[in-house]
Amino acid sequence: MDWLTTVDHKKIAILYLVAGGFFFGIGGIEALLIRVQLAKPMNDFVSAQQFNELITMHGTTMIFLGVMPVIFALMNAVIPLQIGARDVAFPFLNSLGFWTFLFGGLLLNLSWFMGGAPDAGWTSYTPLSTNAYSLTHGVDFYTIGLQIAGLGTLIGGLNFLATIITMRAPGMSFMRMPMFTWTSFVTSAMILFAFPAVTVGLVLLTFDRILGANFFEVSKGGNPVLWQHIFWIFGHPEVYILILPAFGVISEVISTFSRKRLFGYSSMVFATILIAFLGFMVWAHHMFTTGLGPVANALFSIATMLIAVPTGIKIFNWLFTMWGGQIRFTTANLFAAGFIPTFVMGGVTGVMLASAPADYQYHDTYFVVAHFHYVIVGGLVLGLFAGLHYWWPKMFGRILSEKLGKIEFWTFIIGFQLTFFVQHFLGLIGMQRRVFTYLPNQGFDLMNLISTIGAFLMGVGVIVFLVNIGITSRKPVGAANDPWDDGRTLEWSIPSPPPEYNFKQIPLVRGLDAFWKEKAAGHTEMTPSEPVGPIHMPSPTILPFVMSLGIFIAGLGFMFTSDDFGNSFLNFIFNNYIVTGLGLAVTFGSMLLRSLFDDHGWHIEEDELNGKGVKA
Amino acid sequence: MTTPHAQQTTDTIPHELEKATLEGRNKVLTFWLFLGGESVLFGTLFATFLTLRNQVADGPSASELFNLPMTAAATFILLVSSLTSVFAIQAMHRGNKKSLSGWLSVTVLLGLAFLILEIYEFREYMVHEDYSMTTSAFSSAFYTLVGFHGAHVLFGILWIGILIGQLAKKGLNVVTAPKIYVSAMYWHFIDVVWVFIFTVVYLLGKVA
Question: Which CATH superfamily is domain B17-207 in?
């Protein structure tokens, strides 16, 4: 119950982590089923329809429900601590964002049990995703589930923007902000400008499928390429929404474990902003083969290649940070170091794909699959593992086992390279993506088998991680404030896990890497910027949960409005929008309650603060 | 520019009550950001509409359909409601609660009038012209863009209506002021969006 009503950013971080981990597991199982099917030619492990559902759900789940919430978990756990704040700007909205995300994800996955999962690919290209070609309710689950989950993401992004703009501790100027906070800030801004586009795209597709609208129906004047434009003007920035926080994590981890200040801090900041800006300008590079013409293809080609410049700046800055540092290869740092070459390789194939004429060859082959898995798994997932190992003691007060962590790292990264390295060559010799099987003796057999073995090795790596978590959670809470001894930023100046008010006194920031600066000056604690006084805390509330539940019911009701259930009562309540209305009434009703009853929160008094003490 | 009224009341209430607390400032800032996101939302809808506006299939085209005098009247009503919401915020800055809730009520009534005109317009098309969401790609784009705006107006009416009630119950203070200020921002935004709709959908539709 405590977990349903919490508005504490650290607890919401754990909720995001658990939910994200759960969906990550589902997406992983889907991936393994795909690899089993493709392990040998002419396999009949799953049918073509099931294979379509698996690839669709694997992509959708991993992007929207797997990695996204784990990023949000890290952001929630770390940002307020890094900027010296007691909480986020809107604790209520923080909780609301989580619950809408969770209910959206649950709705999407309900499709497995309610007549068939979405089967039009994670991009849901029209006309494949229209009623004519996608017969089940699968795509409806996709459009409405993602709509609800996307709402949660947008709310989260807005909250982080406000938090970072207004709640930084005294002395923490923008150019003294830790790199992870910076990349999260830029990511949140990208979420703000990218997600409303997909909101509209999903609405259009929903209207086409449920209300009989004609946005993508060619016979009535609709335009299927419109979907691709709308999807990718969101979808391309989304790639950077995912990778930028990972860049932030890598920057923190590498600088901590090299015992050196991040090389080229300000160039890192501007590279981040430049990547975000260019990320919005290149969406049509996914559409070179739709026939936009040579001018558009050339412009988008060049714009795409430009992104290599700020990304290269970042890569070299990480290398220069390590150069001459006293490097310690903890698990977190192993993941960070493993990230660099893998991500560079994903970037290089990215430049290859950005060349429009070459893309005509690579398009829809396994080369593309290899490329984006190098970026997203070899970049983002390695970054997330680095971040989780690094901040685990801060989040839970226990250090993960380094021994198991190293086993995890090696099985995961070797498995990863086995899985995806060969896929480049599979693509180059002509294996298509999205096809559920292939004929023997085309040169695909051995490489596919290697790829499948690699995928299972990655699975073993993840299981080792789960075992590590299980074993660690039995240990007592007892991590030091600064368990790595070399912590540079504010989160390491307070106990692990932090008390619910984070900072007894808001610290005074006197430079970049605030805590390191104090340690270098011989202090063990931050200088406070305010006297000890009562701390105002927001009250827990169930309303965000209820609001999201209402949206969930409304979405489920809306999906079935044109169905015939063969039961007059069910037909009546669904076909007359009664279920939809009921759900919306629950949501708007709780919004009304929220509006009518002011909640002034509560205070933690001074003596209570002193009783608890700041020293761990 | 400070008005004499504002100076008179500086001893009793802060000059900008909505920004007197951190929470209030956060709300105003975040709402600006939110409107940035809303701009993308409407921008995408406009792009969709512009792509499909001549795709009428065998249904009527814009120039056959639209009734400009009525839409112009609706536009005028909505623009005036934006002005009355400015009066409301000015009244709030003077600390005049009565005038504030009066102007807010006028704003809500004008919004309601706009909405009634729009519903009437949609009904005309649907019943008399047999023109619906399913007629053509143009009709889908038209109803979606204008309907999204209409839903925003409806939400604004309900929202400001509740705020008038809150104002009566709780008075004008640091909790209610940011809410009222933010709702006025919202109201201006949907007004600006309507100006674009009137230009791009109705005027352009009539001449093309």
Answer: Cytochrome c oxidase, subunit III, four-helix bundle (1.20.120.80)
Give yes or no for B99 touching A (CB within 8 A).
Answer: no
Is A158 an interface residue toward B (CB < 8 Å)? yes
Query: Considering only CB atoms, which chain B residues are within 8 Å of A219?
Result: 57
**Inter-axis angle of helices A308-322 and A224-257, to 10 degrees?**
20
Alpha carbons B203 and B208: distance in angstroms, whole number: 9
Helix, strand, coil fractions of chain B, as percent rounded to 5:
80, 0, 20
B130 by DSSP, 3-state: which?
Answer: coil
Cα separation, A136 vs A127, in Å, equals 14
> Under an 8 A CB cutoff, do A223 and B30 touch?
no
Of A212, A230, A595, the CB nearest to B44: A230
How far is the C-alpha of B71 from the C-alpha of B121, rounded, in Å?
9
Write down the pTM of the prediction. Answer: 0.94
Which of chain A's residues have a Cβ under 8 Å away from the Cβ of B22?
166-167
Mutant choice from A147, A191, A220 vs B, greatest count of B C-beta within 10 A: A220
Closest CA to A62 of A96, A32, A38, A39: A32
Between positions 167 and 226 of A, the ones with CB within 8 A of B are 167, 192-197, 199-201, 203-204, 207-208, 211-215, 217, 219-223, 226
B21 in contact with chain A, both atoms CB, cutoff 8 A: no
Backbone φ and ψ of B11, nearest 5°:
-75, -35
What is the pLDDT confidence band of residue B208, given thresholds at 50, 70 and 90?
A: low
Query: Could you report the average pLDDT of every consecutive run of 10 residues in chain A (616 residues)?
Result: 90 96 97 96 95 96 95 96 94 96 96 92 93 91 96 96 95 96 97 96 96 94 95 96 96 96 96 96 95 94 96 97 95 97 96 95 96 95 97 96 96 97 96 94 95 97 97 92 94 93 93 93 91 90 95 93 84 88 93 83 82 48
- Is the Cα torsion angle A165, A170, A176, A178 positive or negative in sign? negative
Cβ(A158)–Cβ(A192) under 8 Å? Answer: yes
Displacement of CA A311 from its chain's centroid (Å): 19
B10 band by pLDDT with thresholds 50, 70 and 90: very low
User: How many Å apart are CA A455 and CA A421, to the nearest integer?
Assistant: 12
Judged by DSSP in three states, B171 sits in coil
Q: Which residues in chain B touch residue A201, judged by CB atoms under 8 angstroms apart?
A: 44
Please give the pLDDT value at position A575.
Answer: 85
What residue in A sits closest to B165 (Cα-Cα)? Answer: A596
Q: What does the block give as tokens for B81? A: 């409601």
Question: Is the separation of the CB atoms in B25 and B179 below 8 Å?
Answer: no
Largest Cα span, chain B:
67
Spatial contact of A543 and A590, defined as CB atoms under 8 Å apart: yes
Interface predicted TM-score (ipTM) of this complex, two decimals: 0.93
Give the pLDDT of residue B207.
Answer: 85
Which residues in A121-157 are b (16+ Cβ under 10 Å) and which e?
bbbbbbbbbbeeebebbbbbbbbbbbbbbbbbbbbbb
| Neighbour tally for A159: CB within 10 Å | 26
Backbone angles phi, psi at A432, to 5 degrees: -80, 150
pLDDT of residue A84: 94
- Which carries the bigger pLDDT value, residue B139 or residue A606? B139
**pLDDT at residue number A156:** 95
**What are the structure tokens assigned to A128, written together?**
């494949």
DSSP A141: H
Is the bond preceding A440 in cis, omega lying within 30 degrees of 0?
no
